[in-house]
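Hypothesis: this fold can be encoded by more than one sequence.
Test: take the structure tokens below, design a sequence, compare later.
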């Protein structure tokens, strides 16, 4: 049973990483489009936005329930 749980956790982590990579790629594409149109993209450092295990996002030390 423990092995199954570990495998599930690993799979979830991999899925989360893939989702994050996809989001980053989308953001980069949007930024490139914005730059072409003359907008300046504002980048937010990754450490500034952290998703907690309970599904809330922590931004600048504040919990926001979205």
């Amino acid at each position: 049973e423990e092995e199954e749980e570990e495998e599930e956790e690993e799979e979830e982590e991999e899925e989360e990483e893939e989702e994050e990579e996809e989001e980053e790629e989308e953001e980069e594409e949007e930024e490139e489009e914005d730059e072409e149109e003359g907008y300046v993209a504002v980048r937010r450092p990754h450490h500034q936005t952290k998703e907690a295990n309970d599904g809330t996002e922590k931004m600048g030390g504040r919990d926001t329930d979205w």
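Residues 49 and 59 are 5 Å apart (CA to CA). Residues 2-37 form the longest helix (36 residues).
Hypothesis status: open.
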